[in-house]
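HUMAN:
Just now I want nothing more than another pair of eyes on a protein record. I would be glad if you read both lines and explained how they fit together. I have put the entry right below:
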Amino acid sequence: MRIIYAGLGVLFVIIGVIGIITPLLPTTPFLLLAAACFARGSERFHLWLMTHPTLSKPIIDWQKNGVIRRPAKILATVFISLNLAFPLFIIKSVTIPIKITIVIVALAVLAFIWTRPSSSQNI
């Protein structure tokens, strides 16, 4: 089972790193998943991830204080809004109830993001 967790951790780190350069793919959720998998599967990889100079910052912010930094909030808002355009305006076969559901879910996600503190000083 440890090998499966370690393998999933590696997969999530790869997806998270791709998310750094790919605008529509989130980075932090995948890094959080990787940290959780490594905690169960590989102490060595977990230590590496948690001490990495770039990748560890959003993980530590979230784990210690539930913080989502303002630039990440803005970026998430922009990309969620852009992603809404596709099913709402471009794909004509999406029904009204599905469009309403998509908007409600997106607004709930944005509400969650924007109600988290932006720095540990706000806590």
